[in-house]
Amino acid sequence: xxxxxxxxxxxxxxxxxxxxxxxxxxxxxxxxxxxxxxxxxxxxxxxxxxxxxxxxxxxxxxxxxxxxxxxxxxxxxxxxxxxxxxxxxxxxxxxxxxxxxxxxxxxxxxxxxxxxxxxxxxxxxxxxxxxxxxxxxxxxxxxxxxxxxxxxxxxxxxxxxxxxxxxxxxxxxxxxxxxxxxxxxxxxxxxxxxxxxxxxxxxxxxxxxxxxxxxxxxxxxxxxxxxxxxxxxxxxxxxxxxxxxxxxxxxxxxxxxxxxxxxxxxxxxxxxxxxxxxxxxxxxxxxxxxxxxxxxxxxxxxxxxxxxxxxxxxxxxxxxxxxxxxxxxxxxxxxxxxxxxxxxxxxxxxxxxxxxxxxxxxxxxxxxxxxxxxxxxxxxxxxxxxxxxxxxxxxxxxxxxxxxxxxxxxxxxxxxxxxxxxxxxxxxxxxxxxxxxxxxxxxxxxxxxxxxxxxxxxxxxxxxxxxxxxxxxxxxxxxxxxxxxx
Length: 486
Ligand code: GLN
Prior knowledge:
The chain is of the alpha/beta class. It has 17 helices and eleven strands. The protein has a domain at 3-258: Amidase signature (AS) domain (Amidase signature (AS) enzymes, Alpha-Beta Complex). It has helices spanning 8-16, 22-40, 48-64, 106-113, 156-163, 180-186, 220-230, 249-252, 265-271, 274-289, 305-320, 339-350, 353-366, 371-395, 418-423, 430-434, 463-477, and strands spanning 43-46, 75-79, 117-122, 169-174, 189-192, 212-217, 260-263, 293-296, 398-402, 438-445, 451-458. It has an eleven-stranded mixed β-sheet, sandwiched between helices. α4 (106-113) links the parallel β2 (75-79) and β3. The chain is globular and about 65 Å long. The two termini are 15 Å apart. It binds glutamine. Glutamine binds at residues 128-131, 154, 174-178, 206, 313, 425.
């Protein structure tokens, strides 16, 4: 097995036992990226020099014998929507194509404190709006399992990078499914933490009441290690709840006997494809074979979640994206025509079609005449959805669904039909509306060798139970040992 195929847990031991240095390890991953990125386009920026400097600092720390975090000396890919001091951060948008932040997002500051290695910035949909990575202004990212398919989105580059072993882990953001959906389509682990678990400071805001940063990894333990690192203290984000997740391996390895799983069968059967449904049933049966109990539940307002999400998210986005005005850090166009022309031309040329669509939709639902009919109503529905999940999770320990209705689709298959694209999130959008944590774990492959995945949803701040369940599937089926050939 090549070193780049190993999980963080093993690489970290090799580093602390001084069998390899972080500089050597980082070079292996940089070579892997240099070789495969022209095919995958998963990285928009590869930060060779910064990565090697970070690695050298990690080596010094390890040499000095002081206790280190398991991520010390380990490369991390960073979604290009998360601000990194001195490393270009574009949001995959033309409007920020030359933006170099002067500060770090809190999650990046934490990675630097523990001497993780910033290996580069990963491709994504422009301002995290999309389900296929095809809205990136820069390059189409491909699915490592089938280069004619999408990696999912919006954090498609982060998922493809981990799946193809360009990096052992990466960070993404999830507003309506953008960690869980690409994790599933690329066959890896991805977790959207509870809202407020991880600081959003320095993550470009899409829909502030929904956005969360979270990790991608090949194993449950690795995802837990990264969540531990990024969920630490923040004084800059008032929605950060001050409840860091602490990684304790034996908690994850605890058995699930006697635990309960809620399944809204009617909802799942209405949307999942036959192969996805069959695979999902096998996972539930496996959990039952370990002594867990499944219960049929109904999340009554779930069927309105997509409609509700596609009102609330664009509404918040239209306000958040007002800051990109051509005056401050954005690329400026139309100077010759005065201030109005600068606004119009900078935004018309700088934003892609999907971002413009969301801004229009968002301003419309917030306008005086339609506020009550759309935005206000969506907020009411959101409350109902929150209550549904709260009640359901009083009766069961977790709720399970497939992560996506179908495996990865072909590049270009849905680009002309935004509604069909929005439908790719049918199982994931409700969870950020309710604020709960959601984990996607690989559950095997279909007949075309495309990955399938399962979503597990837990109580607020109970990521641990999700990890426990996910770990059982990993331990039994070992899907994470399969690596796509590139
Ligand atoms: N696909 C959803 C959207 O386009 C979710 C995106 C996300 O989670 N960032 O809004």
